[in-house]
Structure formats: C-alpha cells, structure tokens
C-alpha cells in the first residue's frame, strides 16, 4: 500500500457546500446555468 | 447516383449516416457496415455496470432504424480496403465478413464512391496479460461487459454485507490507456453504491491510473475559471477523492493482472502490486486493423494507417518534441492522406500526438495517456464529414469542405458520481478548446471563461437528460437533427 495516495492536503468541501450540492432550488438554478454553458460550448464547436 | 459506405455505427458513424441520408436524395445510396446489430450509448454503460440501469435502456437494434430511414445495413466486419479497386474490378471497394446469424462468416465486396471509416476502437485487452473479462478483471466498455461487471460487483457487496472486507480496484489497465473519465465515473458510482448498501466502511476503493496527476484525463489537465480564480482540475479531482475516501495509485502502467493481484510499474521505475477482490480496468485502444491494398493487390496498409491501426488523415504526423507540438498539427477535414474519397471520423483517425506529456520509466515502459476522443467531438466530426461528402456529391470539387478541428472545438463531459433524482451527483466539466493552445491562451492553454467544472445534483440531472436526448436522436425520432452532437 506504500504507493497508494490519500491526498491529505486536498480541499474538503464544508457542510454548506455539501448541502448546496443537493439543494433542489440551488441545483435547479445551476441546471439552467449549465444548460446555457453547454449551448455556448456547442455553438462554438459546430461550424 | 453516388454510393457512400460508412464503416462503423458508433457515435461518429451513425451520426454521419443519419445526416447523409437526410441531406441526400433517395437516388444516392447510404450504406452502413457494423459488426454489431445494436447501437450502444456507451456513456450510460457506467450505470449498467453498477446495476442501476438495464442493458436494454442503453442499446437498441440498428436494422429497424436503417430500414425506416432508407439506409442499407450490413451486419459485418470490414477487413480490407481496396481504394483503387483491382485489375478485374476497377472500382474502390471494401471487403467485409458477415457477423450476423443469417450470413455468419460469408464475405462480400462492397463498392463505394465515398467511404467513411468510423470503426471506433479495438479493445486491446491482450496488451496486458490477464486483463479483461476473459482474464482476471472486469470492463464496462460494452453493454455486455457492464452487465457481467454489475453481477461481480453485487457479489462483492454481498460479501461486504456478510462482514468480509473487500478491496475494489478501478482504473486503467495499461500505461497507454485513454478514457480516464470513464474509469473516474465508474469509481464514484461504485463508491456511491457502497454507501447506499451501507457497507462503505468495510470497503477499500482504489483508483489506479496512468495519469501523472489526478484530473489530467489524458488532456493535460484543465484549468477551470471560477469566481475565486483559476482552479486546476487536479485540485478539483483530488478534493472529490478525499471527500469520498477514494485512494489512488498514480503514474502507473499495469503490467499484468493475476487472480486477485495487479502488478504495475510507476514513473520512477519502482514496481508494485495491489491485491484486490474486484477489479474493473479499462484496456488500451487501437484501430480496427483494416488492411489496405493497391490495384495490383500489394499491401499498402502502412501508407493508409498508422502503426496503431488508426487511419492517417490531414494531420501533421512528423515526429517532434513535446514542446513543439501545436494545435495546428491536429486534423481539420479528416480526409485520408492516401485517398481523396475516404475520411476517418471519431476514434478511427490517427491523432498526431498525445495531449498530455508522454513519459517513460527508466525501464522504458510508456506511461503516456492516449488522447481522448469523446462522444461530442466524435459526433461533430461525423457530421462535418457527412456534410463534406454531401457537398461533393451535389457540387463536385466545388463543394464546400467542412472542418471540425479539435483545436477549435469545445467539449462537455458529465462524469456521473452516483445516481438518484435527489441523491445523484456528477461532475460537469466543459473545456475549450479540446487541444491546449498556449499561443492563444497562455500557460493555461485554454479559455478559462469557457473551461469550467462543477459538482452537484444539477450535473446528474444533465447526465440523465443527455442520456434520453442522445438515444432519441440516435433512434432518428422526429426532428432528431435539431439535437446537436
């Protein structure tokens, strides 16, 4: 197991961040933003 | 009348076939050759592999779709390319061997005026002794593999529920593998299932990868633009690993897989082994190993295909050091270097070089993630090639040549990290351009306004939405062509 890394220095999300990731209202808004970002990405890639 | 033959019915080939059929009149033939009778939405194999989705929901028969759309379908494997025909048959043709039950083993020569090679990857389990479902590890590369893997995972969960600790090893089965994103997704879906089953505390989950840093994904990593500044994908990914308690073995080339133990070599030449109770390890890919012949029957495979079996196209294949690699090395039209009526789309084209810096161990073992060519660029390339061919058929040499360089194209990747409408999680990542361009974007290599990463329930919803949208599109339902690739 010596070569196995556990990332002790990595950032761990706090309680607020974890709740936000599952909050339906917050995530509903993020879903809309994600869709807009995807559409922008698609428009850039389709010539 | 023109006849276009498309080898392969994956994302690139199927997209090209449907667009060509839509753009051309019925007087022109569109022919698809695929050894598989079914289409498979491969990104959702991850969910089949953890038992959250039935195989039937990620596959469907191709023949009825092609019959409805007027596409000629041959369930067959292409074996030879005769781009100049032969002395007694002076027209280009491909030789195919049928794989369907009605004509199994029979061969035929199919004439073409235009050819798209969209044969995808050949899964090269044999590159690593003991790798794969015929050996000592599992795979999710096909829907059938994913079903077997799901059953093995359920056995492991059963043992955990009976109190026996288990080690689950997931990742890359060779130093030159690609598709790290798929292994990453499977890792976190498995971890999620262990939590749901109430056995996470008894299981060790280890990710083994040929990436030198986590978050490399075979694309030299990414730098996500956020309101707090630029966040490297390494930091983003390591955070998820720590949060979920997943450990990693990095910069590793798996050498062999024995029952219950993997042997690997790391970048500094040290050899290691990792015991496991369950291992899902992806194989390296190579091209479909088509052979090419000139008019006299002399083999010219090395003129048409790279040693990897992928087709050489309009890329700059001249060998040069990593520091001199340029985005302009990457192909734009995907036209064959040998024939002006042949193209390679999706995974079938030979990349000019990796995106991530390739490494070798002191023993000479390659630790060099191959460049990923995911569904989005494969679909975009398939469509661009189809449009070029339609233009050539309609307007001859005056027809517009369509381009789709990965150096000028973005990609979106939704990496699932667990299912469920309220409990699901996924990492949504967008990247622009796919090929890093340090001349245009400085050391970051990409536009940090367009390169973005986020973890949450919304990304899971996005993954589910894309699953349904792309299957709808692939089934050529009404207005399918309005759904972008």
Strand content of chain A: under 5%
Count helical runs of chain B: 10
Major beta sheet of chain A, specifics? none
Low-confidence stretches of chain B: none
Tally of DSSP β-strands of chain B: 26
Residue share in helix of chain B = 10-25%
Structure class of chain A: mainly alpha
Beta percentage of chain B is 15-25%
End-to-end CA span of chain B:
28 Å
SSE-based structural type of chain B:
alpha/beta
Helix content of chain A: 55-70%
For the terminal residues of chain A, how far apart are their CA atoms? 49 Å
Note the overall shape of chain A. Answer: flat
Rg on CA atoms of chain A, Å: 17 Å
pLDDT average of chain A, as an integer?
87
| Overall morphology of chain B | globular
Largest interface: A-B, 33 and 48 residues
What can be said about the biggest beta sheet of chain B?
8 strands, mixed
- Average pLDDT metric of chain B: 95
Number-wise, the strands of chain A total 0
The number of helical elements of chain A comes to 2
What attributes does this structure have?
heterodimer; A: 47 residues; mainly alpha; 2 helices; flat; B: 485 residues
Task: Write structural notes for this entry.
The complex is a heterodimer of chains A (47) and B (485). Chain A has 47 residues and is mainly alpha-helical. In chain A, 64% of the residues lie in helices and 0% in strands. Chain A contains 2 helices and no strands. Chain A is flat, with a radius of gyration of 17 Å. The termini of chain A are far apart. Chain B is an alpha/beta fold and 485 residues long. In chain B, strands 1, 2, 5, 6, 7, 8, 20 and 21 form an 8-stranded mixed sheet that branches. A 4-stranded parallel sheet of chain B has the order 14-11-10-18, with helices on one face. A 3-stranded antiparallel sheet of chain B has the order 15-16-17, with no helix packed on it. In chain B, strand 16 (261-266) and strand 17 (271-275) form a beta hairpin. In chain B, helix 1 (11-23) runs parallel beside helix 8 (375-395). The longest helix of chain B has 21 residues, at 375-395. The radius of gyration of chain B is 22 Å and the shape is globular. The model of chain B has no long low-confidence stretch (mean pLDDT 95).
